[in-house]
């Protein structure tokens, strides 16, 4: 069998009967270091967590400050709009009166030959004020 050829022994019944042979180093060699020595080159975990926590707190604080500033700007913008609204409405009223005057003159010129036509009379049968459509009085053509 193969055991007799390799080991030079006669007739073994099992592989378990083979003698254990192990290669060894000579005893006079120095011991070998096999452990990894990794240097500590960074901050500890606690330091990293503290820095991340501080940065998060600081960022949220700055976001809150900016939100407060933005709301004050919006409030100022609203106050300015409220302050100039009466002037804008007055200008719109003046432009409406001038445009209405021109419209009545045009209506009187066009409908001069129609008997029973009253210039400026509403075609609707109501006494209720209805605000005019802005397109009529701003020299714009009707868009259908």
Automatic annotation (TrEMBL):
InterPro entries found in the cross-reference section: GRIM-19
Q: Which residues cross the membrane?
A: 42-61
Q: Does the keyword Transmembrane helix apply?
A: yes
Q: Which domain of life is it from?
A: Eukaryota
Q: What are the UniProt keywords, alphabetically?
A: Electron transport, Membrane, Mitochondrion, Mitochondrion inner membrane, Respiratory chain, Transmembrane, Transmembrane helix, Transport
Where does this one sit in the cell? Answer: Mitochondrion inner membrane
Record membrane topology: Single-pass membrane protein
Transport among keywords = yes
Cellular compartments per GO CC? mitochondrial inner membrane; respiratory chain complex I
Family as reported in the entry's similarity comment? Belongs to the complex I NDUFA13 subunit family.
**Summary of the function given for this chain in its UniProt record:** Complex I functions in the transfer of electrons from NADH to the respiratory chain. Accessory subunit of the mitochondrial membrane respiratory chain NADH dehydrogenase (Complex I), that is believed not to be involved in catalysis.
**Protein name as catalogued:** NADH dehydrogenase [ubiquinone] 1 alpha subcomplex subunit 13
The record lists the organism as Selaginella moellendorffii
Task: Give the source lineage, highest ranks first.
Answer: Eukaryota, Viridiplantae, Streptophyta, Embryophyta, Tracheophyta
